[in-house]
Write a structure and sequence with these properties.
Layout (H helix, E strand, L loop, with lengths): L1 H11 L3 H8 L3 H9 L7 H10 L4 H15 L31 H4 L8 H4 L2 H14 L20 E7 L5 E5 L13 E4 L6 H4 L9 H13 L3 E4 L28 H15 L5 E3 L14 H18 L4 E7 L5 H12 L8 E4 L13 H15 L5 E3 L14 H17 L5 E9 L17 H12 L4 E7 L9 E9 L5 E9 L4 E4 L4 E6 L4 E3 L5 E4 L4 E8 L2
Parallel strand pairs: 2-3, 2-9, 3-4, 4-5, 5-6, 6-7, 7-8, 8-9
Antiparallel strand pairs: 1-10, 10-11, 11-12, 12-17, 13-16, 14-15, 14-17
Helix pairs in contact: 1-4, 2-3, 2-4, 4-5, 11-12, 13-14, 15-16
Length: 551
């Protein structure tokens, strides 16, 4: 482990002092880790060090295996039902309770070296206390006693672009029509493109629906994720039927050569029009797959080999795992990992959703944290793609319009908040369907308020870079307030600080902060502000723009 860390540190060109500042650790501690005289108890610290040094996924996996060997797995991340994650030490995103009391408090953050990097963490926290103490009423008490969701640690990073592909939707349409509001990526499921529909008889393919969808996506410039599932009845005639009226089976084919042939035919036909492949849908749900894990791993190996041989640019996403609130789902994930399944993929498919449809979207962070722990136990570190929701979603009552709009926006903000755990894609379920609790746009109808608000969020973050996310007292805000900080180019292309704030429940009044110049709302209205103003934060996110340029 020490040799890998030392190699990464040497390659990065960073001094021990500078690297320590970036990961909030002393240079002497880093030196002990790199020369083998010390071993960190927290694997999360290893990940932060490695990422600052530019480690890739293979190097992160190697580090995890060596760390587990070095510690004797004494710091097992624990099962899915583990206790609350205490998280890293508190960080500050240079808000300082928004009080204009001194040059130190008013000084804008810089892009290359944010304040918590230029000074020690203790000094920053002391400055926060000073600025807050001399400010007059930095915020009013929150109007809710609802506790913050679990797994919501605060974090900061070197600014990284917000990928528009994070804003994905699953297509519940076979017509080829596309969303009329702004979105970033498409996923094909419940779009009449299941295996049983595309290959109704062995070797006979009906590409018409798939082609309509791919042509529509290509016209919009949207990357497409194809989802495998629903084995044709002819390929597994004695297997249990799947939850679809097309006679498809919730089982692997009797002859895996049929699987190989379909994967090869699909990739050859679609070419570069398909950007990524999810190798099975809800693999641990018996209505979608009831074969053995070993067979699923073998199907993953075969499909990955074919896809990579025929389209080296395509992303291979391992079969998605659902029900992540239950220990059984994590046991399935571990078994798939133990049998080597994840070594064949570029990303891991997971299903993120609230326990109850009315729960705050931020509660999904607990599931993300538990998945991260399970992958640590498994010895893998892969980007996560959230590819959908629970199968029982349509059984819920529709959400009230305002709650639906707020939750839709915060679904994607929760994905951004979880970027520190390598969550890369968020596919909302679904576009085109008007009979689910939260509708963005029913096919043939204009976008709902939820769809328009999601489009507005996407517009806010076009060309933005994400710098940090946090909530509550850790970032000198009321406990129910959440914030992500960005660098967003102005009309002249100059990067300037911007912050999105919202609550998971209730309201709170906060100072906008030094250098604030405007507040924008999801309904496209805006107002000018200055540092003396307060703004009421609600469950509907707002954007605060600042005047200071980032150098």
């Amino acid at each position: 482990m020490a040799a890998v860390l030392a190699g990464l540190k040497e390659r990065s060109g960073l001094s021990y002092q500078e690297l320590g500042r970036r990961v909030f650790t002393s240079s002497s501690t880093l030196h002990r880790y790199c020369n083998g005289t010390g071993t960190p108890a927290d694997y999360g610290l290893i990940v932060r060090i490695a990422k600052e040094c530019g480690a890739d996924a293979d190097e992160l996996n190697k580090l995890l295996r060596s760390w587990r060997a070095a510690t004797g797995q004494g710091q097992d991340p624990g099962p899915a039902s583990a206790a609350v994650d205490p998280g890293p030490s508190p960080i500050v995103t240079t808000d300082f309770a928004a009080a204009p009391v001194s040059a130190a408090c008013d000084r804008p953050a810089t892009r290359r070296r944010p304040l918590h990097m230029r000074f020690g963490l203790a000094a920053v926290m002391a400055l926060v206390v000073l600025c807050t103490a001399v400010a007059s009423a930095p915020y009013e008490a929150a109007t809710t006693a609802v506790p913050a969701p679990l797994g919501s640690t605060s974090w900061a990073q070197t600014p990284r672009p917000v990928d528009p592909e994070l804003f994905g939707v699953t297509m519940n349409s076979s017509s080829g029509a596309m969303p009329s509001f702004r979105t970033g990526a498409l996923r094909l499921w419940d779009s009449e493109t299941r295996w049983a529909q595309v290959e109704p008889a062995r070797g006979e393919y009906d590409w018409s629906t798939l082609d309509r969808l791919l042509d529509g996506a290509e016209l919009q410039g949207l990357p497409t994720l194809f989802v495998f599932g629903a084995t044709p009845g002819w390929a597994a005639p004695d297997a249990r039927k799947a939850a679809y009226p097309d006679g498809s089976r919730a089982a692997p084919p009797d002859d895996l050569d049929d699987w190989d042939a379909f994967v090869r035919a699909l990739v050859q036909h679609a070419g570069a029009r398909i950007d990524a492949y999810e190798l099975w849908v809800m693999a641990n749900h018996e209505h979608h797959y009831n074969g053995s894990v070993a067979t699923l791993v073998e199907m993953t190996r075969r499909a990955s080999r074919i896809i990579r041989e025929m389209d080296g640019d395509a992303t291979v996403v391992c079969p998605s795992i659902t029900g992540l609130w239950a220990a059984g789902a994590h046991a399935y994930l571990l078994r798939f990992a133990e049998l080597g399944g994840y070594q064949y993929c570029d990303a891991a498919g997971i299903k993120l959703y609230q326990r109850r449809i009315t729960d705050p979207p931020e509660t999904m962070l607990e599931a993300v944290r538990n998945v991260d722990r399970t992958f640590q136990r498994a010895g893998y570190h892969l980007p996560l793609w959230n590819t959908g929701t629970t199968q029982t979603l349509p059984l819920n009552d529709p959400l009230e319009e305002d709650m639906a709009a707020d939750h839709a926006v915060r679904f994607y903000l929760t994905g951004l908040y979880a970027r520190n755990r390598d969550l890369e894609r968020m596919y909302f379920y679904a576009w085109g369907n008007g009979k689910i609790p939260l509708v963005l746009q029913a096919e043939g109808q204009p976008p709902t308020k939820a769809g328009l608000f999601v489009s507005r969020l996407h517009q806010w973050l076009a060309h933005a870079e994400l710098r940090s996310c946090g909530h509550g007292l850790r970032i000198a805000l009321p406990e129910n307030v959440w914030q992500c900080e960005f660098l967003i180019p102005d009309e002249h292309g100059v990067l300037r600080t911007a912050r999105i704030r919202w609550t998971h429940a209730g309201t709170a009044d906060t100072r906008v902060g030094a250098g604030a110049r405007s507040v924008e709302y999801l309904d496209s209205t805006a107002r000018e502000v200055d540092h003396r103003d307060t703004v009421r934060i609600t469950e509907r996110p707002i954007l605060i723009r600042y005047s200071g340029a980032v150098i």
